[in-house]
Amino acid sequence: MSSGNSIADNIKRVREAIAEAAVKAERSPDEITLVAASKTKPADMIQQAIAAGVDAVGENRVQEMLEKNAQGAYTGAPLHFIGQLQSNKVNKIVGLCDLIESVGSASLLAQIGRRAVSLGINQGILIEVNIGREPQKSGILPEHLTSLMETASQTAGVNVQGLMTIPPVIPENERNCNFFDTMFKLFIDIMGKKYDNVSMRFLSMGMSDSYPEAIRCGANMVRIGSAIFGSR
Fold first, then answer.
1. pTM of the predicted model, to two decimals?
2. Where is pLDDT greater, at 172 or 156?
3. Residue 86: how many CB atoms within 10 A of its CB?
C-alpha cells in the first residue's frame, strides 16, 4: 500500500470514529472540524492529507511552518498554528495563519493585535486554557479566562473564534472527560456573554488518543497527528 493510500485510509477511519462519537452525543458529524497535525511531516504527506479531505492543517513550529509553506505544503486548506507561540515569532505568522490556536496571555494577544493592525487584517485566534494547571504548559488559567476575554474584546486586529486546550497526560485507565467537561462549561459560559471581536465558533480539544471522548464532551475541532500520518 502506498503512503498516499495509507493516509487516505487513515483519514477515512478517523472520519468514521468522529461520526460515531458525534452520533453518540446526538450531534452531526458535519459539526466537527478535522485538523491534521503535521509536525515533522513533509509537504507531500500534507498534500496527501489535504487531497483526502482534512478541513485544515495545524503546525506546531514556526520555522517548520515557514519552510513547508514555501514548498506549497498547505495549498488547498486553511492553516492553523497549534504550538506554543514565542513572542519573537509572532510577526512571522500573523497573516500567514488562518487561525492561531494557542493564545494564552494578554501580552501575546496584544502583540498579535498590533501586528494584525499593521497589516490591515483581523487575525483569527483561539484562547488557550491551561485546564490542567500544569506549570510547564502555556495557556491562561480558567479563573483568568473572563478577564482575558474582556481584554481581547477591546484589542483591535484580533477575532477570538473560540477556545483550545491540551489536557494533561493521564494513565490509560483514566479518562480526560473531567477536563473536557470543564472546558465545555467554560465555552458555553463565554458564549453566553456578549463581547466585541468574539465569535465562539470553535472548541478545539482532543488529539489522536482522545478525540472521540473530546467530541462526546463537546469539542467541535480536533487536532489529529499520528492517527493520520503514523507515528513520528
1. 0.94
2. 156
3. 10
